[in-house]
Amino acid sequence: MVSRRRIYVAAAFLAAGAAATAVLTQVGRGGSERVRIGTGAVSALTRAAKTADVLPADVVELPFAAHNFASADGRGSRLVATDGTTQIFAVPGKGRLLCVVEVDEAADTAGGACADRSVLLTGSIWTANVREDGTKDVVGLVGDGHTYASSGARRVPVANNAFVLHDVAGDEVEVGSPDAAQTVSLSK
Amino acid sequence: MFTRLCLLAVATFALVLVPQASAASQIYWWQQNMSPGQIGYDRRYAANHNYNELFFGPNAGWWGEVWEVTPAGARHFDRTCQGNCFNAHPATYYTYVYCANRDGRTHFVYDCSSSW
User: Fold this and answer.
1) Cβ separation of A127 and B60 shorter than 8 Å?
2) What does pTM read for this prediction?
3) CA A100, B56, A120: angle at the middle one, nearest 5?
4) Residue of A nearest to B76 (CA)
5) Interface residue A186 vs chain B (CB under 8 A)
6) For A111, which of B58, B88, B102 is closest by C-beta distance?
7) How far is residue B61's CA from residue B82's CA, in Å, rounded to a whole number?
8) Strand A148-151 vs strand A162-168: parallel, antiparallel, or unpaired?
9) Contact A110/B80, CB-based, under 8 Å?
10) What ipTM score was computed for the predicted complex, to two decimals?
11) How do residues A43-87 score in pLDDT, each as one tens digit?
12) Is there a domain that residue A38 lies in?
């Protein structure tokens, strides 16, 4: 007759084996597929504020600002890039949200996105204008440690945690560091 | 009696007008769970839109998209995003408005909204 102690030991081994299998399965499916860069920190948000960092008043009056920004006036925003007449801002969002907002006051347009900061570990918080021919102008925020963004053969440097990529023909861009690269999907 | 009838008529007329004025300046619609590939839209009538927004909520991280289509089928003001998404632009075309989550999974969507 099998002793009760042996049953307990066997059950413990089975439980440990199941746990190890579950961990390895998750690592195999998710962890290894998602390359991580940095800690998700965004240094551009912590530098001293300048006058140019203030979001235009007509942007903070939009419903999007009330839904997403940490403060009603977009406090804490930083101008992270300028591209022609377009200004790109990083804006602290509610909770764990971080926002990228592009404003072209000459064209009277604005657009943007807010996503959980954890996205910065494995890619970018981005937004893209999609032209009628399907090509995209992409602006994005990345965490510290990212040094470039690229689409096809074109590569642009990351500065102030931001990048701008014009005329993206496909549905992916790549962001990365000298040691690692991440694929950012622009569509489903 | 005539005065009372006039006042009643004016009040009734005002009650009819107020909701219409509000709806003409801004319209909202929302969907709770957008299944994979589902598109939210407002095609009641074309309007001169100037603002579109898709709001997943505070834990946004999925792909979203807002865009407009003229009655003739031309697509304009198409913006796609990682997470909550907005597009503000001059009122240029009479369009219908659309929004979608774009990562092929079901998500709770608080608002797809638009204004003109």
Assistant:
1) no
2) 0.81
3) 40
4) A132
5) yes
6) B88
7) 6
8) unpaired
9) no
10) 0.82
11) 999 999 999 999 999 999 999 999 999 999 999 999 999 999 999
12) no
